Amino acid sequence: MAEFEEDKADDHSPDDSDDDYDLHQGSGAFLSSAGSAQVDSTMDDSYAFGELSQLSSDDEGLDDVEPQTQPSALQLPLTIPTNIPPHLQLPPLPDPPPFPPDHGHLVGMPMTQQMMQIQDEHDDFDELMQSHPMAISPPNAVSLGPENLDVVNFLRHWLCVRQEDVYHDVSRYQARRAILKLAQEDARRIRLEDLAGDECDFQGINWPSLKVTRTAARQRRKVTYINYVNREGSDGQIPLPHLRPDCNFYRFQGMSIKRDVRLLHFQLRNILGCSSRSRAFYPSLKAVREINPNDGSTKAAMTFESDSDAQTSTLTASQDVLIAGGFFGDFRYRSLNTEDATPTKGRLTDHPSGITNHVQIHEARRSHAPLAAFASNDYGFRVVDLGTNQHLSESMYECIINCSALSPDSRLRVMVGDHQDVFITDADSGRILKTLVGHSDFGFACDWAPDGWTVATGNQDRTVRIWDARYWDRPVAIIPTELSGARSLRFSPLGSGRRILAAAEEADYLNIIDAGTFQTKQTFDVFGEIGGISFTNGGSELLALCCDYYRGGLLQLSRCDHGAGDSFLYPTERHDGVYSSLISRSSDWLSEAELEGLGMAKTPTEHRRQAFLAYGDLMPF
Fold first, then answer.
1. Can you spell out the DSSP letters for 486-538?
2. Structure confidence at residue 114 (pLDDT)
3. CB distance 109 to 116 below 8 Å
4. How many angstroms separate the CA atoms of 594 and 598, rounded?
5. How confident is the model at residue 333 (pLDDT cuts 50, 70, 90)?
6. Which end of the chain has fewer CB atoms at under 10 Å, N or C?
């Protein structure tokens, strides 16, 4: 993880220094158009916010809107910070309209004050911008927030760069009003029966009211989204074939819209924990919130009101323990078997760059003692006994470790970090046993499958690579992402049915990959940064945390292939890339005989069929 000198301020707390920046970023740009305004070369008729439409009786408040003639002499002397990347900059602010009679009192004021005064009188977006200013690029040392726009500001930016010949189209004003309404809507839960195509998607967005289709918005998002990389050009590799999108593993169950999700570091996307089907956890302001995915109700799981330095950088939960890592070498945890929400505080390091990048809960290999493995930004990796709050081991590496995953037998550990290579280490000593070469940028996601030999790694080079522990020399599959780098990876749990790899990208896309062949997948997409994913209820449900300020929340997906057969025909691929034969093997990570040997009371097939009958739902997706 790249190092930063200053701590992140609250993303949604504007200050006086934001005024000029906010004004330039579009609030004032709705007032008029100018010949000097840049026209977005990517903007064509397919991206238009609707065609020219007649003003309806429902559009109250637009009757007094009249086109303004443009002066040729006035120019707004407004500059923007040099550290704002080009993709966040709007075209030059258009010249202001001439003053009507009722604005004569503004003559003589500084130009910036004139524009702000007109904005206050004619544009409700000043209230919107004060509630949530646009995010500044993360390379700026004062901000660790995402550098790409949230859904509301994405729509505002898009509306702002429209061609001038349709500037006074009534549909433009209707779209602007719809965007404002979207930003001010109360949080609610979107259910399966609420979905209505473009009129209501997973996030409850009514796209026709915005005078645009969801498909056009998705195309626009792909054109404008910037994938963050630490090595220039690392995500511009030779185009790889995309997986066939012909799987139906999960279907939409519901989404609870929440406005208190706090993503405090744009590179760290493991901030969703889940202990059961009714208990999930995410970071909020000065707290960790518990949410019931089934109804969207929330309550405080841990509060940090008395800790002035408490900020959550990573989070995880097991059936018994909830842990939140901090930005200052600290962590907090509590038992989930009690009602006491007071956390126990622990310390990992006093290093100035002590951000806790990742934490994984697991049991000790020779006992059932709960342990936590922490990857820190000070190049250290530490294992802590949660029963005694004592350090058991500490290993230092030549690069920062951003994520780790323990093998099922607890003997090996896969690590990725601020290096393009992947490291396989001894879980006890921390010694590097094998270095895996293939990625071209820093890594932030990895997982080890329950079969014991399948490993997945995700890096900022926009690829997910699959490795086989029996043949470490090269990846057995290279999977390209849709929009950005994969920052959260999860294999489906043992006994959940057909093997799956869930890969959450930095924003928008959740890929559910067939981990038997790595040739097909199912894709869900939302608008917003993704903070993490987690399987729950034995793999029957998959949760994803969307961190968009306005339309973020918890996305809930339910498995829809219960009752599937015990085995499938899979192509066997040799390491030279040649398909040699078709074999029949268990669809799960282990065969029925192997699972019975582990002492399971019921086989996974029996569990799945019982669950299928209990749900009583025959819909395939």
1. EEEEEEPPTTSSS-EEEEEESEEEEEEEETTTSSBEEEEEEEEEEEEEEEEGG
2. 52
3. no
4. 7
5. very high
6. C
Q: Do strands 330-335 and 541-546 pair parallel, antiparallel, or not at all (unpaired)?
A: unpaired
pTM (predicted TM-score): 0.74
User: Are 132 and 280 within one domain?
Assistant: no
| 88-114 pLDDT tens trace | 343 333 344 444 444 455 455 555 555
Residues 36 and 122 in one domain: yes
User: Structural domain of residue 269, as residue ranges?
Assistant: 258-396
Query: C-alpha angle with apex 617: 614 to 621, nearest 5 degrees?
Result: 135
Question: CA–CA separation, 13 vs 390, rounded Å?
Answer: 38
Give the position of tokens 């065969």.
591
Q: How far apart are CA 56 and CA 425, in angstroms?
A: 67
145 lies in some domain: yes
- Alpha carbon distance 553, 282 (integer Å): 10
| E strands, 400-453, in order | 401-406, 412-417, 419-426, 432-436, 443-448
DSSP-assigned beta bridge partners for residue 556: 254, 543
CA distance linking residue 305 with residue 233, whole number of Å:
43
Residue at 153 is within a domain = yes
* Model pLDDT for residues 375-405, shown as the tens digit of each residue: 999 999 999 999 999 999 999 999 999 999 9
User: 556 near 254, Cβ under 8 Å?
Assistant: yes
The mean of the pLDDT values for the chain is 77
Place of tokens 């003053």: 99
Last residue of a domain, which of 396, 422, 440?
396
Tell me: do 24 and 162 sit in the same domain.
yes
Residue 363 phi, psi dihedral angles, 5° rounding: -95, 150
Domain endpoint, select from 351, 367, 396: 396
Alpha-carbon 528 to chain mean position: 6
pLDDT value of residue 186: 86
The total of structural domains in the chain comes to: 2
Whether 33 maps to a domain, the answer reads yes
Closest C-alpha to 356, from 459, 264, 231: 264
CATH of the domain at 374: 2.130.10.10
Percent of the chain with pLDDT over 70: 67
What would you measure as the largest C-alpha separation in the chain, in angstroms? 87
